[in-house]
Amino acid sequence: MLESWSQSQKRPWVVVVESTRPGTQISNHQVWERIVFAKGYRLAYFDGLNRFYVHESHPELFKAFDRPPNVFDNFAFSGKATHPFNKVVQQKLIKSNSTVESLKLSIDEAKNTISNLKNMNSRLIDKIDFANEKLSRLTGEYKSQKSDFMDLVHAYGELSANYKAIQKSLSWRLTSPLRGLSTHVLAITKLPRRFANRFVFSSINLFKIPIHSAMSRVLRNEALSVYLNTHIKKFPYLHQHLRSIAYGENILNSNSIISISESDLSISARAARIHVKLSRLIEKRLESDSANRN
Hints:
This protein has 9 helices and 3 strands; from the N terminus they run βαββαααααααα.
């Protein structure tokens, strides 16, 4: 290549030529250096691989080659060269690149984690809102049920007071034998009719005297008579025996309020009382008309 150098008058200020055989430290400048000298260049520096030549027209450049590169030149390795003294830099660069890639992966994982946490947070917020709504609804239901419970407690108190007042009343004490008898009657409703009738008949005969006394007192109270008569008629056999006792003891006549026919079983106690009052008004009207005709 040096032999093909033309005869042009233009010359580079500095020429650098590799002066060893490839891949070795064997110098070969003796073969071609004369050509460089013939062009007006002088040797300025040899770094072990390359020979640096400065043209004689720029002798001021020689002082730049009086010492090799050193720490005072403030140079730095690029890390891209393949020379062995760059291995440490290259290794650090490779390690740094690996660290960067690892950090990128960590950042991506962190982003995914943040995204998942945001989704979880959103779901938790929805659950909290749902729980708050449910709590509000349950609180309202609790207050409503508490109010109903207090109403029931108040009603129970009133009923309890009324029940105690009834227990202290004269009519309650007088009808005690009948209630005891009705308890026995309800207990035997599951027995065959023949045995049930026998039990009722025996019980009535056993309590005949207290029943007679109670019936005499009850018939004096019109409202109580109608009420008891309405409920006793639900037990025809018992009603029949009680009527027999009443007729036998001359405490019941054909105009008595207990003599309402069996067809009246379906009417209420209030209707029965109205029926009795109308019957008595009719009887009084008939008696008055009969007296006027006489």
